[in-house]
Specification:
There is one protein chain. This protein is mainly α. The chain contains 18 helices and no strands. The two termini are 34 Å apart. Residues 1-10 have low confidence and may be disordered.
Length: 435
């Protein structure tokens, strides 16, 4: 097996069950509740919307299976950054870190903050004008808590992971049981539809987060076997949950109403199923889920600029690499992400932020999928503890799916795509100046 030496001092404490739970916990967040309306609006009808959720799951699963081979061959903590650095060198891995620091992290955090605010407004009857201040406020509140120490962020994550599964299970069971609407073939009421490309892109936000488990490959007891199993089982459970909850919502609400409700479709369904008080309790569960997802991204994304600053790869590295002894967390790096998220929140709506984040991330995913072919050519006689099943077809599905997403983003939202590319490329002259 092609093993990259180093980081052997990390404790290998993560077992298979814990790793599967990590995949599920990192993937299920806001998308399952925020995107059903966006997907059905883009797809045009309920049948095509469900197909979009299946396609998004298939592309994500193919991506996860492909990247797992990299994780098995390069079992180091650091995930995609480490893989790209090993295969393509420092410049490309630097651009990935730059993109995650400047675009993906802030866009994800900003979108979650705005989604959280979007549900808080109707819950308390607050005017729409307060959405941005509340979104910014919750981002800085959560950043402040995580700056106090990882034990606070870890506690919130544990509670949120349990809380997020409750509303999903209740909506699925009672929606499929009590609903009497037609699930398939119901039009969104909007003509023409935006297109399947936009619909699949929206689902990928809901499926996002699986790559995070590769960051801790070096701390797994047997990453060669655990990582692919965790991704297959974890994503399999997530795909089933996403398809069934969408069917449940469609069984309760007409497709046109789901499209018009947008981000409020899931909470409205809960209100119809469980009454006003029960609906509010389910809405609280949804808020807890988004709150937990926001906490997780703030907790993990702040480590990216911190790690880059330690290597002197960011302007102001001396500032962002500081860790106050009193709290033991990269406070300045986390505040940087919060400030950048605030800037994006001011100029973009949450759906655009998720599209920008997905476009930027999947651009780098393509190079990771291709890296599997490169490593096999470099080390043709290597005995691998894990190989992509159905090679080369599964990696090709991931590559074709990624190009499909990137192409459709250019067609549907060219300005957002150009913003993602432009900000990423700004990292090149900065890298050259720093070096």
């Amino acid at each position: 097996m092609c093993v990259i030496e180093g980081q052997n001092n990390l404790k290998k404490n993560l077992g298979l069950v814990a790793t599967i739970a990590l995949v599920i916990g990192m993937v299920i967040g806001s998308g399952i509740f925020m995107k059903p309306g966006k997907v059905i609006l883009a797809a045009g009808d309920s049948t095509m919307a469900l197909i979009a959720w299946v396609l998004g799951g298939v592309i994500t699963l193919a991506a996860g299976l492909t990247v797992s081979e990299l994780g098995a061959q390069i079992p180091k903590t650091g995930g995609l950054y480490t893989y790209l650095n090993e295969v393509y060198g420092k410049v490309w891995s630097y651009l990935y870190g730059w993109m995650q620091t400047i675009i993906y992290g802030p866009a994800t955090i900003g979108a979650l903050g705005l989604y959280f605010a979007s549900l808080i407004l109707p819950f308390f009857g607050i005017d729409e004008g307060a959405r941005l201040p509340i979104g910014i406020g919750v981002v800085f509140f959560m950043t402040g808590l995580n700056c106090l120490g990882t034990k606070y962020g870890g506690f919130i994550q544990t509670v949120a992971t349990i809380g997020k599964l409750i509303p999903i299970a209740l909506i699925v069971v009672f929606g499929l049981w009590k609903g009497n609407g037609q699930i398939f073939g119901m039009t969104s009421g909007v003509s023409p539809s935006i297109g399947m490309g936009a619909a699949v892109l929206a689902t990928l936000w809901a499926y996002d987060g699986w790559i995070g488990v590769s960051f801790v490959a070096g701390e797994m007891k047997d990453p060669g076997k655990q990582l692919p199993k965790a991704i297959i089982v974890g994503l399999g459970i997530v795909i089933i949950a996403y398809i069934t909850i969408n069917m449940a919502i469609m069984h309760v609400l007409p497709a046109a109403e789901i499209a018009s409700l947008g981000k409020l479709a899931a909470s409205t369904t809960a209100g119809l199923l469980f009454g006003e008080m029960g609906g509010k309790l389910i809405s609280i569960g949804i808020l807890v889920s988004i709150f937990g997802a926001l906490n997780g991204y703030i907790l993990t994304n702040g480590r990216v600029p911190y790690a880059m600053a330690l290597e002197g790869q960011l302007p102001g590295s001396a500032i962002f690499s500081k860790v106050p002894n009193s709290v033991g967390t990269p406070v300045n790096a986390m505040l940087l992400e919060a400030v950048l998220a605030t800037i994006l929140m001011i100029f973009w709506d949450p759906d655009s932020l998720t599209d920008i984040a997905m476009f930027a991330m999947w651009t780098f995913y393509v190079s990771a999928f291709v890296a599997v072919f490169i490593l096999r050519k470099r080390h043709p006689n290597t005995v691998r503890s894990y190989s992509v099943p159905g090679y080369p077809f599964v990696p090709m599905i991931a590559i074709v799916g990624a190009f499909y997403i990137i192409f459709n983003m250019f067609i549907d939202k060219p300005m957002d795509a150009m913003v993602a590319i432009g900000i990423t490329l700004i990292g090149l002259p900065i890298y050259w100046v720093i070096k």
